[in-house]
Amino acid sequence: xxxxxxxxxxxxxxxxxxxxxxxxxxxxxxxxxxxxxxxxxxxxxxxxxxxxxxxxxxxxxxxxxxxxxxxxxxxxxxxxxxxxxxxxxxxxxxxxxxxxxxxxxxxxxxxxxxxxxxxxxxxxxxxxxxxxxxxxxxxxxxxxxxxxxxxxxxxxxxxxxxxxxxxxxxxxxxxxxxxxxxxxxxxxxxxxxxxxxxxxxxxxxxxxxxxxxxxxxxxxxxxxxxxxxxxxxxxxxxxxxxxxxxxxxxxxxxxxxxxxxxxxxxxxxxxxxxxxxxxxxxxxxxxxxxxxxxxxxxxxxxxxxxxxxxxxxxxxxxxxxxxxxxxxxxxxxxxxxxxxxxxxxxxxxxxxxxxxxxxxxx
Length: 362
Hints:
By secondary structure, the protein is mainly β. Helix content is 7%, strand content 46%.
């Protein structure tokens, strides 16, 4: 009996091993590393698969002569103007009232936010969540910077500044740089604490601030001293003061940062400088009393607002000459270009309008 049980056990074990060996032998062989297909190999003639990164936005080709396509009637004396990052809202400082206007481009709805004193010029945070409006009265009282939440459309804080704060600008780290016209300095405000974090002395009297594309350099137009200051943003020290023509009112850089254009308000001219050397490339005659300037997204054209002749001069930045002139409203003051490069907004102070121009074929 014991022998029979032992024989059955041996037979069962052999059957199990046979099944295991049979299954192992029947399984498909795993290919070697050389035989395995290359997952990243791209068949010839085909586009690579998407990487998950959005494609870079196409820069529109700017027109030699922009086309007036619309006007918005608002306020008492529109002055400073900026456009939201999504191109949908235009913000305007109304300097004969105490209002900052919000223009919804699509619906044409216009609302306003009250500020403590007369708003003059305006800047917008990098994410579009805040608008900063410089303020002062005609007797130079009420000097300050109004901080507005764009979502709630409410005043966050009114910061006291030096006398006659002009065109503010948001720096590479989000801080707000405010040129103090009657103080011969730039005041810098921390965007988180909304308190002053630094001061930079410049020649009298700063009107405008702009930054290089990489944020490493700031430039100020110093109106009465006929100089442009070049400032290192890292240590906030003036590297040099460059002599320019009379009454530099506003400045703008090409998108590549290689050229700086300066408006000479009392001369009816603009100057173009090479930023590598800060030597003048050319001085160009434009309309009367050129106040503000903006460069197209493709860097090919500069738009100069001529307050005294009610028009915009278009300068070809490569040829360094005026290629067209466009009529706008009465006493144009400041110009802003939409981030997508498709629209130009000009405030017409005495006309109480904002003129909208198409800057490309789109």
